[in-house]
Design a protein that fits this description.
The complex is a heterodimer of chains A (114) and B (109). Chain A is built from no helices and 11 strands. Chain A is mainly beta and 114 residues long. In chain A, the strands form 2 sheets. In chain A, strands 2, 4, 5, 6, 9, 10 and 11 form a 7-stranded mixed sheet that branches. Chain B is mainly beta and 109 residues long. Chain B is built from no helices and 9 strands. In chain B, strands 1, 3, 4, 7, 8 and 9 form a 6-stranded mixed sheet that branches. Classes of the chains: A mainly beta (114), B mainly beta (109).
Chain lengths: 114, 109
């Protein structure tokens, strides 16, 4: 059974940093592109970032470019999102997802507030 | 990186069909056959319903179908059932990025 479990969310002050993790199991993690997608409270899905299977290529939404960094450790079957210079508008549930995306985790809530 | 355009809402009675449109550009929907559709119930993670424009993952009822013409993709739900009431989002590969639609709330009357 495919499982994606996000962690690392929480309350952070504006300008602060947070690192999200996504532990994958039940599939060959190293063969799949991975994504981060976020959803602000009561709003729609927004694509944030993606990374290819071996980590050599990354892409970002304009809204997070230069502030967020996606990475992966295929030996640990884990995806990461380093978030710096956080803003109130980054407040959202952050989902990791594999492939198209096809499989999704349950999400972790990031709240940016003073 | 503009969001794909979907109607905010759609509705139908049980047994009827509803079609949701997803309009993009030649840089996303029109340029690739990598359009996906997701169903999201309140408080839940999205679920893949259609991928590569018209393919259904294992376990998704054949009441769900997808198509594309030019820069617009469509999701049709036939034989509406109460459990189909949810938010639906399209998504497209766009080369240097991915993009989601604005979302459509489907109501079963």
């Amino acid at each position: 059974e495919v499982q994606l479990v996000e962690s690392g969310g929480g309350l952070v002050q504006p300008g602060g940093s947070l690192r999200l993790s996504c532990a994958a199991s039940g599939f060959t993690f190293s063969s799949y592109w991975m994504h981060w997608v976020r959803q602000a409270p009561g709003k729609g899905l927004v694509w944030v970032s993606r990374i290819n299977s071996d980590g050599s290529s990354t892409s970002y939404a304009d809204s997070v470019k230069g502030r967020f960094t996606i990475s992966r450790d295929n030996a640990k079957n884990t995806l990461y999102l380093q978030m710096n210079s956080l803003r109130a508008e980054d407040t959202a549930v952050y989902y990791c997802a594999s492939g198209y995306p096809d499989y999704w985790g349950q999400g972790t809530l990031v709240t940016v507030s003073s | 990186q503009s969001a794909l355009t979907q109607p905010p809402s759609a509705s139908g009675s049980p047994g009827q069909s509803v079609t949701i449109s997803c309009t993009g550009t030649s840089s996303d929907v029109g340029g690739y056959n990598y359009v996906s559709w997701y169903q999201q119930h309140p408080g839940k993670a999205p679920k893949l319903m259609i991928y590569e424009v018209s393919k259904r993952p294992s376990g998704v009822p054949d009441r769900f179908s997808g198509s594309k013409s030019g820069n617009t993709a469509s999701l049709t739900v036939s034989g509406l059932q109460a459990e189909d009431e949810a938010d639906y989002y399209c998504s497209s590969y766009a080369g240097s990025n991915n993009v989601f639609g604005t979302g459509t709330k489907v109501t079963v009357l």
